[in-house]
Structure of NDP-sugar synthase:
Amino acid sequence: MTIAPATPSPEAILLVGGKGTRLRPMTVHTPKPMVPAAGVPFLTHQLARARAAGVEHIVLATSYLAEVFEPYFGDGSALGLHLEYVTEEEPLGTGGAIRNVASRLRSGPDDPVLIFNGDILTGLDIRALVDNHRTTGADVSLHLTRVPDPRAYGLVPTDERGRVTAFLEKPQTPEEIVTDQINAGAYVFNRSVIDTIPADRPVSVERETFPGLLAAGAHLQGMVDSTYWLDLGTPQAFVRGSADLVLGRAPSPAVPGRCGDRLVLDSASVAGDAKLTGGTVIGPQARVGAGARIDGSTVLEGAVVEEGAQVRDSLVGAGARIGARTVLEGAVVGDGALVGPDNELRDGVRVWCGADIPAGAVRFSSDQ
């Protein structure tokens, strides 16, 4: 009996160099992939899911606050991975970042290389994407997902075989919405394709590489996987993603505890009559006072939520303090900020790191 050789596991590139401008003030001191989601840096969930899919070697393409990644993850052995780090001296865009790390890849020209954006939370079947890439003989495969309103995204129509037929910028009129399929931010490249990306200059895979390959007759394959998918580009989306991980709506083997209504990290202190719901996370050394109500929110390391405060769909930064009876709804409070008692912050308000809001300084009447 002849035994076929095992298919080698693909390696991966993780694009984690973005500045996270839309997430400020969460990203003032911390790069976006290192902001905690469900109790650990978001990047931990991506690494753990890649490892669960059989990936063993991952190169991290870093730029903004690049120095924080390696001290935390090291060589990746704690996650069963071999991690390498490459830092861009100047921002190179998605395509440029991929090309910049190519020298660290071990794949042969026809081998598949997975590429993940560092701000997407997804339930994508990674193995299925690679298998589909191999089966169809594609040069590049893209994870596509369907969204109810695609106007904020680039559209990626495909034919009946799943081959990509065009890349369309954000549609402006109903006539331009020819599909509800969008680029979901995970790809498989043949290694040889990566080597064709221009080196040492900014390149966008979305605007330059993909359209250029299509125009040259390359085979670009789309695989629609409409399981859980969320772009964590805004504070509200990030908080929602963290809550969904805790609730078990978004899959990850890296959640440090059982899925449920709440996740309280070791060394946190929560008053007995405080109520935590909706996937709320209380970080290490944080404290929640008597009678506080926290729903669908993240309270980071060392933060304090005082007695009677109400926090909903919000993020409280590391070392911040929320005063007694203060109400946060859809708000972000930066690291080390102080929000005094009896304030109301709603509807996307962002409090900068280290800010100090006195007691009762911000109030919303019921008719606002």
Q: What stands out?
A: Helices lie at 42-52, 69-73, 93-100, 126-136, 191-194, 205-215, 235-247. Confidence is low (pLDDT under 50) at residues 1-6.
